[in-house]
């Protein structure tokens, strides 16, 4: 089990408007394949798993969300921003089994705020 892989995410914040295409990027310090989760956290709410790059969007997540990437570079895209999409977005590398939300938020030091 690797514990020394560093993950970075950008931008840390970005101004957005309704209908914008939004792109958030994540980079791993070494190859992690496609073992990446993306989470969304709205103010006052628990984080929500949006997608697993291996299996795709979680049930109920709108198709305007998409994820791509393999190896070291990854992207979360919102094709046309809706007001309810304003939130903080986190990534999480997983190497064996899905992390709990608590683990994900503890291990992820960065989020992209909109």
Give me a quick take on this structure.
The chain is mainly beta. It is built from one helix and nine strands; from the N terminus they run ββββββββαβ.
Helical region count? 1
Main sheet summary: 5 strands, antiparallel
For the biggest β-sheet, the strand order reads 5-4-3-8-9
In total, the number of domains comes to 1
Outline the structure in words.
By secondary structure, this protein is mostly beta strands. The protein has one domain: Immunoglobulins (Immunoglobulin-like, Sandwich), CATH 2.60.40.10. It contains one helix and nine strands, in the order ββββββββαβ. Strands 5-4-3-8-9 form a five-stranded antiparallel sheet, with helices on one face. Strands 1-2-7-6 form a four-stranded antiparallel sheet, with no helix packed on it.
SSE inventory with pairings:
Blueprint: E1 7-10, E2 22-28, E3 36-41, E4 48-52, E5 56-57, E6 65-70, E7 73-78, E8 88-93, H1 101-107, E9 112-113
Antiparallel strand pairs: 1-2, 2-7, 3-4, 3-8, 4-5, 6-7, 8-9
What characteristics describe this protein?
114 residues; mainly beta; Immunoglobulin-like; five-stranded antiparallel beta sheet; four-stranded antiparallel beta sheet; 1 helix; 9 strands; globular; Ig_V-set; immunoglobulin; immunity
